[in-house]
Every structure is written in C-alpha cells, then in structure tokens.
Amino acid sequence: MNRIVSRDKIRGMFLGLAIGDALGMPAETLTRREIQKRFGRIDKYIEPRGHKWFDGKPAGMWTDDTQLTLAVADSFIDKGQFDMDDIAVRHVKALKESDLGWGSTTREAVQRLSEGTHWNISGYSTTPLGRGIGNGVAMKIAPLAAYLTTRYRNHELSQPDVDDISRFAFMTHSTGIGAASALAHIEAIYHCLTHTRRHFFDDEFLKAVIGAAKRHNTFTEDNSDSERDKLLFQLGYVDRLDWSVIPVEAMLKVFNGGTSKASSSLPFSYAMFLRNVDSIDAIYETVNAGGDTDSNGAIVGSLLGALYGEYIFPAHLVNELWQKNHILEIADRFCAVFGIV
Ligand SMILES: [Mg+2]
Fold it and tell me: Ligand 1 centre and the CA of 58: distance in Å?
C-alpha cells in the first residue's frame, strides 16, 4: 500500500490538469491584452467562439494536454508499470480519436509510430531545426510522476528512472530540452504529491526541479542543447527572484510571453504557481496571462491539485468540467491499481 500519496492528491492532480486546460482552451495563443478585450477576466469556463481551432466546442472542454495525460494514465492502469511499447500504442490510439490542438512535433512523431516506426526513433525529426522544443512532453507526463511516488519518496531519481523518463520524452521530442523538460516536470509533480502544504517550501521545490532538469541519461552521449541551457537559466530566475511582488506583465517579458516553448512555458508556469500557491487565482492568473494558456493552465492546475488535493477547486470548475466523471474514474482506477487510498 502506498501511504505517501493520498487518493485526494491524485484526484486533485488529474482534475486540476483538466480544469486548467479547459479554462485556458478558449484563449490559447491569444495575448494578455486580447484576452482582456475578448473575455474580460477568465474565471469560469467560456465557449471558444471564433477560436481558430476550437470554435463550436462547448465551454469546459479540455484539449490534447488532458487527452494525452489520460492516454498515459490508461497505460499505467492497464500494465501496472512503465511500459514504453504500450505507451506508444496508446498514443497511436489517441491520434486516431482526435488530433485537435496537438502540437506538430507530437503529431508527426505519433504519425510515424502509427506507420510502424519504433518509439526509439519516432522522435527524430527529418526537419530538426527548431523542432522538439515545445512543452508537449511535460504536459502529459503527470501519471508517470504519480507512478514514481509508488516507488520511493524524497529520493533523488534513480538512473534507470532518468533513462525511462528520457525514453518517454524522446518518443516524440528527441532533444535535450525534451528530456530536461520531462525530468523537471516529473520532479515538480512528484514534489507536490509527496509534500503537504505545511512542508512545502518554494526553494526546496525549485532546487529539486533544477536538479532533475540537469540529469543526463546514459544512452545518449550528450543531451545538451541551447533550449535546455535556456530552461536551466530561466529556472534559475524563478529561484532567485521574489515573484510574489513582480507584476504579471514583467513576468511575461522575462518568460517570453509564456509561449509553448518548454524553456518559457515551464519556468513561467512554476513562477505563476509559486506566486499564488495558496489560491485558485494561480490558475486564473496563468490563463489570463496569454500564450500557451491551456498547457500552462494544465501545468499550474495539476501542481495545485497535487499539493492540496481536489478540494482546492471551486465547485463550478469541477461540476461544469467536460467529462468530469471520466477523469475521476481514471484517477480512482489509477489509485486502485497502485494501492493509493
Ligand atoms: Mg492543448
């Protein structure tokens, strides 16, 4: 039995991810100013009228971030362990169901998987320039972090786990930033799941995240690249500055508008989370800031839910969430498989 993580935290992680995703959905790719003009302030689900991808969809609908997170969760539920072959199969199945909102790196890699390419090489792009640098791995990796909590607590990631996480990343994003963003976010979720609010401290959280992002796998000679360096540099900023007193506008300048690049999306989302760690406002401020609003919302929402559990979320956000029961059912099945009560 896993006595470290509670079912409430796992449900919070899944719910928060979907809630942040759905809140940010109508605003994805808009700027802060455009959001203000169009919606005022987003603090409830909004119909994505006129959105370039989601027009006609209902308010409260979540997107690819939640879709792929659930696909990864399904694999752990079914197999009871980390199984790259099965995770690849689940991605192909998800692609067949819908590719709405998918990033091009993920779509192309999963397309290659569906054509029979092995997951070992599916992430290598034939047009590598500027590819594989987005937040597409981090956004779906939460179930893997939850799985790792069933293995050990407050322990540095073992080298085999670093290698598994890197394999997971490389299936779609075969870059240094692909692996580093996966390792950073695994640690972020893991840290929130394994700490109570009373024992959670900003500096410890960031130290753990930065430490994980620096890890190297044993099967590539050098997995550094300029985006990975940028991620480490930006995480250093989050660590050094007191974000609680810095306006969102200034944060957007530092973090490149909170766009979907992992080197801006992750540090921006962590800063937004830490800035408002005791409140649902952390998600509202994140999705109202513009940029990759649904993925950033999903990142902040999952951290908040993992730290506090499901009761941090106001009733209207839970009740009006698209396929709420399906999300909670997956969370509960995940808990049942791994003995989380
Ligand atoms: Mg999305």
Answer: 15
CA–centroid distance, 295 to ligand 1, in Å, is 5
Tokens (6 digits) for 31? 């700027």
Q: How far is the CA of 320 from the centre of ligand 1 (A)?
A: 18
| Residue 100 Cα to ligand 1 middle (Å) | 8
**For residue 214, is it within any domain?**
yes
Task: Quote the strand ranges of the chain, DSSP E.
Answer: none
- Split into its structural domains, the chain has a count of 1
- In the reported structure, the alpha carbon of residue 218 is separated from the centroid of ligand 1 by a whole-number distance in angstroms of 31
What does the CA dihedral 50, 54, 56, 57 come to, rounded to 10 degrees?
Answer: -140
Q: What is the whole-number distance in angstroms between the Cα of residue 16 and the centre of ligand 1?
A: 14
The CATH number for 209's domain is 1.10.4080.10
Q: What's the gap in Å between 21 CA and the centre of ligand 1?
A: 7
Q: What is the pLDDT of residues 200-210, one digit of tens each?
A: 999 999 999 99
Q: Which residue range(s) make up the domain with 172?
A: 7-337
2 domain residue, yes or no = no
pLDDT band at residue 103 under the 50/70/90 scheme: very high
Q: Is residue 311 part of a domain?
A: yes
pTM of the predicted model over 0.90: yes
Asked if the structure places residue 1 within a domain, the reply is no
- Is the backbone of residue 258 left (phi > 0), alpha (psi -120 to 50) or beta? left
